[in-house]
Amino acid sequence: MNTTTNAHIDCRERHVGIDIGKSMLDVCIYELDVYLQHPNTPEGIRTLLKKLSRYKLTRILVEATGGYERGLVEACTEKELPVIIVQPTQVRQFAKAQGIIAKTDKLDSRLIARFGAVMKPEVRPLNSKKVRYIRDLLSRKRQLNEMRTQELNRQHKAPAILAATHKRLIKVLDKEIEWVNQLLAKAVSEVTEWQRTYEILNSVPGVGDGVTFTLLLHDIDHFPS
């Protein structure tokens, strides 16, 4: 059953849905029923944005793909275009509510654009380079934590004569983790949109920097990456 009708759509608006592939960008301008396709390369992105600049765009919705969207989103942000990253699960839930049954798991550009036209998610711009830097720091923090856990597991199984080497490595990893935490705290404090949230989360008993960073970064996919 279709629970959301076209009455929710303002035809004066312009919503662009972009289905991201490793090599191609499939694009739909929903209200105009215009479809475009460009290579997911710097040149292809420049050409696409030049074409899109002809329209007064309300929102550009980009499917999160784990990295393939990065170049496009950075280019949109640099040109101050209203770009929003949407999670595939959000759009699938929307499609289900609309009574749309996808033939494959891949989201098409029209569905992504329709999601924007109906749901009208908020455009919340951030400095893309800063966000990418914070993402990279968080990724490194996770890697170091995993390495520390692995080394602890090895230590428990190792003969006593090797205990010292495991302890030394764990100590090194602890220092690296602390260093990354300091960089994260500094980076997050420099993002105006997060300063108040960071202070509130960090003031809650039992919620340390690790949990705070994770909660903040959980929301990062709504921003340019």
From TrEMBL:
Pfam families registered for this protein in UniProt: DEDD_Tnp_IS110
Single GO BP term: DNA transposition
Transposase IS110-like N-terminal domain ranges (all copies): 16-157
A GO molecular function held by the record: transposase activity
Protein name: Transposase IS110-like N-terminal domain-containing protein
Species classification: Bacteria, Pseudomonadati, Pseudomonadota, Gammaproteobacteria, Cellvibrionales
